[in-house]
Amino acid sequence: MNLVSPLLDLPLMADDRERIELALRSSVRTADAYLTEIASHLIVAGGKRLRPVLAVAAAQVGSDKPVSNEVVQGAIACELVHLGSLYHDDVMDESTTRRGVETVNAKWGNLQAIVAGDFLLARASEIAASLGNEVSGLLARTIGRLCEGQVEELRHTYDRGRSVPSYLVSIQGKTASLFATSARIGSMVAGHSTDITDTITNVADAYGMVFQIVDDVLDIVATDEQLGKPAGHDLEEGVYTLPVLLSLAADTAESRELYDLLGTPLTAKERTKALKIVRNGTGLAGALESARNYVAIAEAECAKLPSGVATEALRRAPRALLESLVDL
Protein backbone atom coordinates (compact mmCIF):
# COMPACT_ATOMS: atom_id res chain seq x y z
CA MET A 1 0.00 0.00 0.00
CA ASN A 2 1.30 3.46 -0.89
CA LEU A 3 0.19 5.53 2.06
CA VAL A 4 1.65 8.84 0.94
CA SER A 5 0.96 8.98 -2.80
CA PRO A 6 -0.51 12.53 -2.70
CA LEU A 7 2.74 13.81 -1.19
CA LEU A 8 4.97 11.74 -3.44
CA ASP A 9 3.25 13.21 -6.48
CA LEU A 10 4.50 16.70 -5.66
CA PRO A 11 6.72 18.30 -8.33
CA LEU A 12 10.40 17.79 -7.51
CA MET A 13 9.57 15.32 -4.70
CA ALA A 14 11.51 12.53 -6.40
CA ASP A 15 14.58 14.77 -6.54
CA ASP A 16 14.07 15.88 -2.94
CA ARG A 17 13.76 12.29 -1.73
CA GLU A 18 17.04 11.44 -3.45
CA ARG A 19 18.66 14.40 -1.67
CA ILE A 20 17.20 13.12 1.62
CA GLU A 21 18.57 9.62 1.07
CA LEU A 22 22.06 10.91 0.32
CA ALA A 23 21.99 13.26 3.30
CA LEU A 24 20.72 10.50 5.62
CA ARG A 25 23.54 8.15 4.71
CA SER A 26 26.10 10.91 5.02
CA SER A 27 24.78 12.00 8.42
CA VAL A 28 25.66 8.68 10.12
CA ARG A 29 29.04 8.14 8.48
CA THR A 30 31.81 8.07 11.07
CA ALA A 31 35.49 7.16 11.31
CA ASP A 32 34.38 3.91 12.96
CA ALA A 33 33.23 1.53 10.22
CA TYR A 34 31.49 -0.72 12.75
CA LEU A 35 29.35 2.10 14.16
CA THR A 36 28.64 3.38 10.66
CA GLU A 37 27.36 -0.05 9.62
CA ILE A 38 25.07 -0.37 12.63
CA ALA A 39 23.78 3.21 12.43
CA SER A 40 23.14 2.84 8.68
CA HIS A 41 21.37 -0.51 8.98
CA LEU A 42 17.74 0.66 8.81
CA ILE A 43 18.57 3.54 6.48
CA VAL A 44 19.94 1.08 3.92
CA ALA A 45 16.89 -1.16 4.47
CA GLY A 46 14.68 1.61 3.09
CA GLY A 47 11.42 3.03 4.35
CA LYS A 48 8.63 5.38 3.34
CA ARG A 49 10.37 8.46 4.82
CA LEU A 50 7.01 9.95 5.78
CA ARG A 51 8.46 12.50 8.16
CA PRO A 52 11.02 13.99 5.74
CA VAL A 53 8.37 14.01 3.00
CA LEU A 54 6.07 16.02 5.26
CA ALA A 55 8.88 18.47 6.01
CA VAL A 56 9.49 19.00 2.30
CA ALA A 57 5.77 19.33 1.54
CA ALA A 58 5.42 21.90 4.32
CA ALA A 59 8.32 23.91 2.92
CA GLN A 60 6.74 23.86 -0.55
CA VAL A 61 3.44 25.41 0.57
CA GLY A 62 2.97 28.55 -1.51
CA SER A 63 6.09 27.84 -3.58
CA ASP A 64 7.09 25.84 -6.62
CA LYS A 65 10.84 26.11 -6.03
CA PRO A 66 13.18 23.33 -4.86
CA VAL A 67 13.58 23.27 -1.10
CA SER A 68 16.81 24.53 0.44
CA ASN A 69 19.56 22.33 1.82
CA GLU A 70 18.56 23.58 5.27
CA VAL A 71 15.08 22.10 4.80
CA VAL A 72 16.64 18.77 3.82
CA GLN A 73 18.80 18.88 6.95
CA GLY A 74 15.75 19.57 9.10
CA ALA A 75 13.93 16.71 7.40
CA ILE A 76 16.71 14.19 8.07
CA ALA A 77 17.03 15.32 11.69
CA CYS A 78 13.42 14.23 12.20
CA GLU A 79 14.00 10.95 10.37
CA LEU A 80 17.04 10.21 12.54
CA VAL A 81 14.88 10.69 15.64
CA HIS A 82 12.37 8.25 14.18
CA LEU A 83 15.08 5.71 13.38
CA GLY A 84 16.65 6.03 16.81
CA SER A 85 13.27 5.38 18.41
CA LEU A 86 12.86 2.26 16.23
CA TYR A 87 16.20 0.88 17.44
CA HIS A 88 15.02 1.31 21.02
CA ASP A 89 11.51 -0.02 20.29
CA ASP A 90 12.94 -3.20 18.80
CA VAL A 91 14.96 -3.82 21.95
CA MET A 92 11.89 -3.31 24.16
CA ASP A 93 9.72 -5.52 21.95
CA GLU A 94 12.48 -8.10 21.36
CA SER A 95 11.72 -7.80 17.64
CA THR A 96 13.80 -9.80 15.20
CA THR A 97 12.84 -8.24 11.85
CA ARG A 98 12.16 -4.71 10.63
CA ARG A 99 11.67 -3.56 7.02
CA GLY A 100 12.41 -7.05 5.77
CA VAL A 101 15.82 -7.33 7.45
CA GLU A 102 17.14 -8.40 10.84
CA THR A 103 16.75 -5.80 13.54
CA VAL A 104 19.92 -4.29 14.94
CA ASN A 105 19.33 -6.01 18.29
CA ALA A 106 18.87 -9.38 16.57
CA LYS A 107 21.99 -8.99 14.44
CA TRP A 108 24.40 -7.26 16.83
CA GLY A 109 22.79 -7.43 20.27
CA ASN A 110 20.76 -5.21 22.60
CA LEU A 111 23.69 -3.16 23.87
CA GLN A 112 24.78 -2.20 20.37
CA ALA A 113 21.19 -1.36 19.41
CA ILE A 114 20.72 0.92 22.41
CA VAL A 115 24.00 2.75 21.85
CA ALA A 116 23.39 3.07 18.10
CA GLY A 117 19.89 4.42 18.79
CA ASP A 118 21.44 6.99 21.16
CA PHE A 119 23.95 7.89 18.44
CA LEU A 120 21.15 8.54 15.94
CA LEU A 121 19.37 10.81 18.44
CA ALA A 122 22.65 12.63 19.07
CA ARG A 123 23.23 13.18 15.35
CA ALA A 124 19.66 14.46 15.00
CA SER A 125 20.27 16.93 17.82
CA GLU A 126 23.54 18.08 16.29
CA ILE A 127 21.89 18.73 12.92
CA ALA A 128 18.97 20.54 14.56
CA ALA A 129 21.40 22.76 16.49
CA SER A 130 23.01 23.80 13.21
CA LEU A 131 19.63 25.17 12.13
CA GLY A 132 19.22 27.42 15.17
CA ASN A 133 18.00 27.41 18.75
CA GLU A 134 14.31 27.32 17.85
CA VAL A 135 14.65 24.18 15.74
CA SER A 136 16.97 22.57 18.28
CA GLY A 137 14.62 23.28 21.19
CA LEU A 138 11.60 22.04 19.22
CA LEU A 139 13.26 18.72 18.35
CA ALA A 140 14.45 18.23 21.94
CA ARG A 141 10.91 18.80 23.24
CA THR A 142 9.58 16.34 20.68
CA ILE A 143 11.98 13.62 21.79
CA GLY A 144 10.57 14.18 25.26
CA ARG A 145 7.03 13.87 23.88
CA LEU A 146 7.95 10.53 22.27
CA CYS A 147 9.11 9.25 25.65
CA GLU A 148 6.00 10.53 27.41
CA GLY A 149 3.72 8.86 24.87
CA GLN A 150 5.61 5.58 25.14
CA VAL A 151 5.50 5.62 28.94
CA GLU A 152 1.75 6.30 28.86
CA GLU A 153 1.36 3.19 26.72
CA LEU A 154 3.69 1.07 28.85
CA ARG A 155 1.97 1.90 32.12
CA HIS A 156 -1.32 0.64 30.69
CA THR A 157 0.03 -2.67 29.37
CA TYR A 158 -2.63 -5.38 29.83
CA ASP A 159 -4.95 -2.75 31.32
CA ARG A 160 -8.51 -3.65 30.31
CA GLY A 161 -9.73 -0.46 31.96
CA ARG A 162 -7.52 1.82 29.89
CA SER A 163 -9.46 4.91 28.79
CA VAL A 164 -9.76 6.28 25.27
CA PRO A 165 -8.23 9.62 26.39
CA SER A 166 -5.17 7.69 27.63
CA TYR A 167 -4.84 6.06 24.21
CA LEU A 168 -5.18 9.38 22.39
CA VAL A 169 -2.62 11.08 24.65
CA SER A 170 -0.21 8.21 24.02
CA ILE A 171 -0.44 8.19 20.23
CA GLN A 172 -0.30 11.98 20.07
CA GLY A 173 3.01 11.81 21.91
CA LYS A 174 4.65 8.73 20.45
CA THR A 175 3.47 9.17 16.84
CA ALA A 176 1.72 12.41 15.92
CA SER A 177 4.18 14.74 17.65
CA LEU A 178 7.08 13.81 15.36
CA PHE A 179 4.93 14.17 12.25
CA ALA A 180 3.89 17.62 13.49
CA THR A 181 7.46 18.61 14.30
CA SER A 182 8.73 17.44 10.90
CA ALA A 183 6.22 19.66 9.11
CA ARG A 184 6.82 22.55 11.52
CA ILE A 185 10.58 22.44 10.99
CA GLY A 186 10.12 22.33 7.21
CA SER A 187 7.82 25.35 7.39
CA MET A 188 10.02 27.31 9.82
CA VAL A 189 13.22 26.73 7.88
CA ALA A 190 11.46 27.68 4.63
CA GLY A 191 10.62 31.03 6.20
CA HIS A 192 6.83 30.77 6.38
CA SER A 193 4.92 33.08 8.70
CA THR A 194 3.99 31.96 12.21
CA ASP A 195 0.31 31.64 11.21
CA ILE A 196 1.09 29.39 8.25
CA THR A 197 3.57 27.35 10.30
CA ASP A 198 1.02 26.84 13.08
CA THR A 199 -1.61 25.74 10.56
CA ILE A 200 0.76 23.32 8.82
CA THR A 201 1.68 21.90 12.23
CA ASN A 202 -2.01 21.27 12.97
CA VAL A 203 -2.42 19.49 9.63
CA ALA A 204 0.55 17.21 10.27
CA ASP A 205 -0.54 16.49 13.85
CA ALA A 206 -3.97 15.35 12.59
CA TYR A 207 -2.24 13.31 9.88
CA GLY A 208 -0.19 11.57 12.55
CA MET A 209 -3.30 10.72 14.56
CA VAL A 210 -4.95 9.23 11.46
CA PHE A 211 -1.77 7.33 10.66
CA GLN A 212 -1.62 5.65 14.07
CA ILE A 213 -5.34 4.85 14.26
CA VAL A 214 -5.22 3.30 10.78
CA ASP A 215 -2.11 1.33 11.78
CA ASP A 216 -3.94 0.04 14.85
CA VAL A 217 -6.97 -0.92 12.75
CA LEU A 218 -4.66 -2.76 10.35
CA ASP A 219 -3.30 -4.81 13.24
CA ILE A 220 -6.85 -6.08 13.74
CA VAL A 221 -8.21 -6.50 10.21
CA ALA A 222 -5.20 -7.33 8.02
CA THR A 223 -3.90 -10.85 7.45
CA ASP A 224 -0.55 -12.12 8.70
CA GLU A 225 0.73 -12.00 5.11
CA GLN A 226 -0.35 -8.39 4.59
CA LEU A 227 1.22 -7.28 7.86
CA GLY A 228 4.38 -9.33 7.60
CA LYS A 229 3.79 -10.41 11.20
CA PRO A 230 0.95 -12.12 13.10
CA ALA A 231 -2.26 -10.07 13.18
CA GLY A 232 -3.21 -8.98 16.66
CA HIS A 233 0.40 -8.41 17.70
CA ASP A 234 -0.64 -5.45 19.87
CA LEU A 235 -3.26 -7.58 21.62
CA GLU A 236 -0.63 -10.22 22.27
CA GLU A 237 1.72 -7.60 23.74
CA GLY A 238 -1.02 -6.23 26.00
CA VAL A 239 -1.30 -2.96 24.08
CA TYR A 240 -5.03 -2.29 23.81
CA THR A 241 -5.62 0.16 20.99
CA LEU A 242 -8.70 2.14 20.00
CA PRO A 243 -10.65 -0.66 18.23
CA VAL A 244 -10.12 -2.91 21.25
CA LEU A 245 -10.95 -0.25 23.85
CA LEU A 246 -14.16 0.65 22.04
CA SER A 247 -15.06 -3.04 21.76
CA LEU A 248 -14.51 -3.47 25.50
CA ALA A 249 -16.73 -0.46 26.21
CA ALA A 250 -19.71 -1.97 24.38
CA ASP A 251 -22.24 -3.48 26.77
CA THR A 252 -22.61 -6.84 25.04
CA ALA A 253 -21.99 -10.49 25.76
CA GLU A 254 -19.10 -10.36 23.26
CA SER A 255 -17.47 -7.39 25.02
CA ARG A 256 -17.65 -9.25 28.33
CA GLU A 257 -16.12 -12.31 26.69
CA LEU A 258 -13.34 -10.12 25.30
CA TYR A 259 -12.78 -8.64 28.76
CA ASP A 260 -12.36 -12.12 30.21
CA LEU A 261 -9.84 -13.04 27.51
CA LEU A 262 -7.65 -9.96 27.98
CA GLY A 263 -5.60 -8.76 30.93
CA THR A 264 -2.84 -11.37 30.64
CA PRO A 265 -0.66 -12.76 27.79
CA LEU A 266 -2.71 -14.60 25.16
CA THR A 267 -2.22 -18.04 23.69
CA ALA A 268 -2.46 -18.30 19.90
CA LYS A 269 -5.99 -19.68 20.26
CA GLU A 270 -7.05 -16.86 22.58
CA ARG A 271 -5.55 -14.24 20.25
CA THR A 272 -7.55 -15.66 17.32
CA LYS A 273 -10.73 -15.57 19.40
CA ALA A 274 -10.11 -12.01 20.61
CA LEU A 275 -9.43 -10.85 17.05
CA LYS A 276 -12.70 -12.37 15.87
CA ILE A 277 -14.66 -10.56 18.56
CA VAL A 278 -13.10 -7.19 17.73
CA ARG A 279 -13.49 -7.71 13.98
CA ASN A 280 -17.20 -8.50 14.37
CA GLY A 281 -17.96 -5.80 16.92
CA THR A 282 -18.59 -2.06 16.77
CA GLY A 283 -15.11 -1.03 17.90
CA LEU A 284 -13.66 -0.94 14.40
CA ALA A 285 -16.40 1.37 13.13
CA GLY A 286 -15.86 3.65 16.12
CA ALA A 287 -12.11 3.78 15.52
CA LEU A 288 -12.60 4.64 11.86
CA GLU A 289 -15.05 7.37 12.81
CA SER A 290 -12.41 8.84 15.09
CA ALA A 291 -9.91 8.75 12.23
CA ARG A 292 -12.43 10.50 9.96
CA ASN A 293 -12.75 13.27 12.54
CA TYR A 294 -9.01 13.87 12.38
CA VAL A 295 -9.18 13.83 8.57
CA ALA A 296 -11.82 16.56 8.78
CA ILE A 297 -9.58 18.59 11.11
CA ALA A 298 -6.67 18.34 8.65
CA GLU A 299 -8.86 19.33 5.71
CA ALA A 300 -10.30 22.32 7.58
CA GLU A 301 -6.80 23.50 8.49
CA CYS A 302 -5.63 23.15 4.88
CA ALA A 303 -8.41 25.52 3.82
CA LYS A 304 -6.50 28.25 5.71
CA LEU A 305 -3.29 27.71 3.70
CA PRO A 306 -2.29 29.33 0.40
CA SER A 307 -3.71 27.31 -2.49
CA GLY A 308 -1.29 25.25 -4.54
CA VAL A 309 -0.09 21.74 -5.24
CA ALA A 310 1.63 21.29 -1.89
CA THR A 311 -1.44 22.40 0.06
CA GLU A 312 -3.63 20.10 -2.00
CA ALA A 313 -1.28 17.18 -1.38
CA LEU A 314 -1.33 17.86 2.35
CA ARG A 315 -5.13 18.05 2.25
CA ARG A 316 -5.45 14.70 0.48
CA ALA A 317 -2.81 12.81 2.48
CA PRO A 318 -4.84 11.97 5.63
CA ARG A 319 -7.83 10.71 3.62
CA ALA A 320 -5.47 8.56 1.54
CA LEU A 321 -4.51 6.73 4.73
CA LEU A 322 -8.16 5.80 5.32
CA GLU A 323 -8.65 4.80 1.69
CA SER A 324 -5.70 2.40 1.98
CA LEU A 325 -7.94 0.19 4.12
CA VAL A 326 -10.39 -0.34 1.26
CA ASP A 327 -8.07 -2.84 -0.45
CA LEU A 328 -8.02 -5.15 2.57
Describe the protein's architecture and organization.
The chain is mainly alpha-helical and 328 residues long. The protein has a single domain (5-327), classed as Orthogonal Bundle (Farnesyl Diphosphate Synthase), CATH 1.10.600.10. The chain has helices at 5-8, 13-27, 33-45, 50-59, 69-93, 104-108, 110-130, 133-154, 164-190, 194-221, 224-227, 233-237, 242-249, 253-261, 268-280, 283-302, 309-323; strands spanning 97-98, 101-102. The protein has a two-stranded antiparallel sheet with strand order 1-2. A hairpin with a 2-residue loop joins strand 1 and strand 2. The longest helix has 28 residues, at 194-221. The termini are close together. The mean pLDDT is 93.
In short:
The chain has 328 residues and is mostly helical.
Rg from alpha-carbon coordinates: 20 Å
* Overall mean confidence score, pLDDT: 93
User: Proportion of β residues?
Assistant: under 5%
Distance between the termini: 10 Å
What would you call the structural class? mainly alpha
What is the CATH class name? Mainly Alpha
Strand order, sheet with most strands: 1-2
H-E string: HHHHHEEHHHHHHHHHHHH
* CATH-assigned homologous superfamily: Farnesyl Diphosphate Synthase
Write the layout of secondary structure elements.
Elements: H1 5-8, H2 13-27, H3 33-45, H4 50-59, H5 69-93, E1 97-98, E2 101-102, H6 104-108, H7 110-130, H8 133-154, H9 164-190, H10 194-221, H11 224-227, H12 233-237, H13 242-249, H14 253-261, H15 268-280, H16 283-302, H17 309-323
Antiparallel strand pairs: 1-2
